[in-house]
Task: structure prediction
Amino acid sequence: MDQRPVTRTPKPSAGWKLAPEIAREVQGIVVTGFGSLPTGRALFLEIGEPERLDLGGGAWLRTLNRVAPVTPAIPPSGAQDRAAALAFTWTGLARMKLPANALASFSRPFREGMFQEDRLRRLGDRRRDEWQETVLDGGPLWSANTPLREPTSTRVGAYDVAFEGEEKHVPTPITVHAVLLLYTLDDASADALARDVEDAFRSHGVTVSHRLPLVLDVEAAGVSREHFGFADGLSQPAPFDAAGAVEIEGRKATQAEPVQGVPLGEFLIGYVNGHHEKAPGPVVPGEEHGTADPRPQDAGLPPHPEAQGFYDLGRNGSYLVVRELRQDVAAFWTSMDRNAAAIRARDPENSGHVTAEWIAERVVGRDREGHLLCPAGRRAPHASGMPDNSFLFHADDPHGIGCPPGSHVRRANPRDALAPTPEQRESLLAAANNHRILRRGRKFGPRIEDDRTPDDADRGLLFMCLNTDIARQFEFVQQTWLLNSDFATLFDEVDPLVGPDGRMTIREEPLRRSVHVETYVQMAGGDYFFLPSLPALRYLASL
Result:
C-alpha cells in the first residue's frame, strides 16, 4: 500500500451548502444527491398539447406541487422520507408555451439538443449516418426529438452568410419533454409515489413515456458500487463563491480549495464562473401583447440586470445532462479474464500478478474500494477510512506507472497531469477545473448474480450532471478527454471503460503492456435539460 500523499496532506472535500436566502430558491439536487434516500424512480414525461387541455399548460405543475413538490436546497429539519427534482428539455418548454423570445434566449447546445448532428459526432454517438457501437443496438430509445433548425442568413461585413438548415434528423421512438426524479426510502414508497404522480397527471394530458428504477445501495463502508463492482461517486468538485453564496462547515467558502475548488457559476446560473463572468441564462419578457405581464414578478423572478424589460428565468437554475448508459457486466469481466490469460501466456515469468481484477483496476484507475492507484500500490485512505481524493498526478505519478494515463479516472479529470513542466502544474489544474461537472447520477437495474454470466436484465447508470456551459463542460470532457485518441501522449486509444473497442496501454517498469478493451457501455437515450429554480417553476406553472 502506498502510504505517501501524492502532493499534500490528504483532506477530503467538506460538504457544502448554499446560503439560506439562495437555498430556498434552488432545487435540492444541485447541492445533494439525496444520499439518505436509497431508492428512486426516474419518470420521463411527455406533455400533451396545451390547446387540448382545459386547465392551461402549467396546470400539471400546480398538481405536482400538491402530490410530490420539488425539494428546495434547504436542509430538512427532521428525517427526510422523500424528495423530487424536475427538469425540462427544449421541446418540453416549447410544449409549455414558453414565449418564443424566451425559448431563443437559452444556450445553443440546449436549444439544439443532444441529437443535433454535430453534437452527436463530438459525443461519439453517431458518425457518417451510422450509430456507433457505444450506442444501443438499433439506436437510442428516447430523446427530446428536437426539430431541425430553420434556414437562416445574416450579413457579416460585405458578405451574406447563410445557414441552409440541417438535412438530417434522427428521431427516437420515445419523446421526452421533462424528467421527474423521485427519491424515497424503499421500493414500496417509490412505487406508490410514482403511481400517485401518474394518476394526478392523467387529467392534464401528461404521460410517463419512459421510466427507470434508481438505486443507491450504500455499503457499511460508506460507498456505493456501480454494476462493474467499483466504488462510485467519490470525487466531486467543491464549489466556492467570492460573494459568499456557498457555505462549508459554517463558514463562507469565498476561496477555492487547492485541488477540487470550482466557482459556483460553473454549476448555477447567475454566479461567477471560471472565466470570471456571471454564467448567462435565459430570460422572459415583462410584457405580453404590448401590456405588462404580472406573472414573472408574481412568481418571484428578479428583473434581469442587463436585459431591460426582461426577467431572469435562469438565475439559480442549471443545465442537466442526462444519458441512460447500459452496462454489460459479463462482457466486461470475461474480457478482463481473456486479457489476463493472454498476458500470462506471453510473459509467464513476469506476469504472475496480472489477474482480471488487476487489469480492471487499471481500466478504471482505482481499486474496487475507490482508492487511487499509485506507483507503489494504492493511495492511502483518509483518516476516516474513505478514499482520499485531494490528490494530483504530476509530482508522484507523472508517467502513469501507477494510474495509467488512459484510465477512466485520469481521463475524466486529469487535474494537473497534462502539465508539461512542474512550473505549469497550477495553471493546468485551473484549466482542468474550468471543465468540471457536478455529477448526480444513480445506477438502475438489479445486481447481476454472476458477473461472468450474461442475463436479460437491463442495468446501468443513469448519468446526470449539472453544468452552466454544456459545450465547455460536459461536451469538452466527452470529446477532448474521454474520446480523444491522442490524449496525454497516447496514440489511437480512447477511454477504455466507456469508449468503443480498441487498445489500452498499461505502463509498468520496465514493461509496457497492451490490452484489448471492448464495448462495455452503450447509450440507450439522453438529452439536455434545463433545471429551473423554484421561482422559475412557479412561473412555468402560471403559463
